[in-house]
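**Reference record**
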Amino acid sequence: PRVFEEKQESASTNADLKNIIYSSSEPVFSVISAEKQSSGRGRLGRSFFSPSGGLYFSVSYPLNGDETDIPCLTLLSGLAVHKALKDLYNCETVIKWPNDIYLNGKKLCGILCELVVSHGKMTAVAGIGINISLSKEEIPVELRDIMTSLSIEGFSAEKEVLMKKIVQSLDEYVYSQKQLYSLNEASLDEIRTLLRAFDRKVKYTLDGEIKEGYITDIQKNGAAVMTTDNGEEIIISYGEVN
């Protein structure tokens, strides 16, 4: 059974959960949530603005084998967030590959997944931050054109209900359906639809080279397919997309 811990403030729920994993010789099935984060992190070491008014939580997944990568966890986390918001509040979101959830053209949620090695065991950690009740005035001026919250878009949500719904879906994807390394056809179809619905050109940067295009497909291992304006298809497994 999962252990749920709620904190008023955390530097980073991912960091808190990783510390528990490092200090435990037993598998850690935990969820840590916080009212706000003082040092929230995003991909590639970026900071993640996470004041009061959001739902910030991290969930751990002890693994059995000698996995060195968790390619599908980020997209499965995004799918779990999307489905929970749709099922609970009829709120339609889309996914920007690989780790952002958008609502009405602005970022609503960020996801950071990490693989922890401790005591000879692997544990996956999924960190999810959703803007719930932030007002426009609480969002820094420089972020107002790109960031939104459920309340700004006319939705209200119960944090604990939403969190537990997301965790329930993720547990199903990871343990029952075993999709951590290969997406099944149903999830592939849903994620493809949500990625294509993010109808915006993106820039892909790898080793200083920049390509522009649209995310047009997704592979079973979670890699994205970007199609450039001249029809070139590029497989994106890592690098920066913005």
Observations:
- The mean pLDDT is 90.
- The helical segments are 13-23, 73-89, 159-176, 185-197.
